[in-house]
Each structure stands twice: as structure tokens, then as C-alpha cells.
Amino acid sequence: MAAPGGGRTARLLISCPDRPGIVAAVSSFLFRHGANIVSSDQHSTDPEAGRFFMRMEFSAADMDLQGDDLEAAFRLDVADSFEMRWRMSHPGDRKRMAILVSRYEHCVLDLLWRWRRGSLDADLVLVASNHPDLEDDVRSFGVPYEH
């Protein structure tokens, strides 16, 4: 996903006990390190005693920290104090993907061909189905099949 200025976005997913200051702490941390927040969504299950969830995308192109250094600083400066469960994905990280399929082959075969040609930006690690019908087709692509 392209960010303003041609950079690529990184993503931060957060879950923690809700309390005041979470949004301010996260956005201030990113600002201090040179990020530009391009999207932010958050909600709470209950502001008094619920869980807080956030998904934030930011341009990482001009940041003073990258990768593992950025994650270590975030953990120390923000995540630990808010008891966060969190995950950060960086531009260029390949995703692991599984396909869930039933009996019909047209969609799964299309996805398998796209994956084989390299047009899916992901590592296909599994096809899972509630029927055994497509096992031979899937295994011919070298992908594990679970029924």
C-alpha cells in the first residue's frame, strides 16, 4: 500500500485493557520517530473496563528507527506500560496465507495459479477444506491440504 510521498506503510495492531492515553501514547511515539500516520481505527468494548483495539497504518519511509529497532523501542516506550498485545508489520514483510475451500474448485484453482505465478504477495502454507474432493489438485501445486 502506497503512502503519501511514495513510501510504503507499516501497520500496527493493538489490543489492551482500555484506559485513557493509549491513542496519545501511540501517535506521539510514532511522531517522535518520524512517522506519518495515514490511517487509524480504534474502538473499545467498554470504556470503563473493556478492551481497546487499534489498527494504525503509518509511513515508515522517513523514520529514524526501522524493523526490530522500532519494535524494541515501541515495546519499551509504549506497549509494556499499557499491557498491550501487539503486532507490527513492515513494508516488504511477506504474509503467510491459508485458503479455506469447500467442494468447488474454480476459486481455489484460480488462487493457486496466481500464487504459482507470483501474483499473490504471500507465502501459501495450507489449503484447508471440509471435504476431501480437491486434495489431489491442491497437492499437485506442492501445497499441504488438510481435511
What keyword list fits this structure?
alpha/beta; three-stranded parallel β-sheet; about 150 residues
- Note the beta-strand portion: 25-35%
Quaternary assembly: single chain
Helix content: 25-40%
Helix-strand makeup class: alpha/beta
Number of helical regions: 4
Q: What's the mean pLDDT score?
A: 91
CA distance, first residue to last residue: 34 Å
Total strand segments:
7
Helix-strand string: EHEEHEEHEHE
Name the shape in a single word. Answer: elongated
Largest sheet: 4 strands, antiparallel
Q: What is the CA-atom radius of gyration, in angstroms?
A: 20 Å
Task: Give your account of this protein's structure.
By secondary structure, this protein is α/β, with parallel strands linked by helices. Helices cover 28% and strands 33% of the residues. It contains four helices and seven strands, in the order E-H-E-E-H-E-E-H-E-H-E. The protein has helices spanning 22-32, 67-79, 106-117, 135-139; strands spanning 9-17, 36-44, 51-59, 85-89, 95-101, 122-129, 145-146. Strands 2-3-1-4 form a four-stranded antiparallel sheet, with helices on one face. It has a three-stranded parallel sheet with strand order 5-6-7. A hairpin with a 6-residue loop joins strand 2 and strand 3. The longest helix is centred in the middle third of the chain and has 13 residues, at 67-79. The two termini are 34 Å apart. 18% of the residues are buried. Residues 1-6 have low confidence and may be disordered.
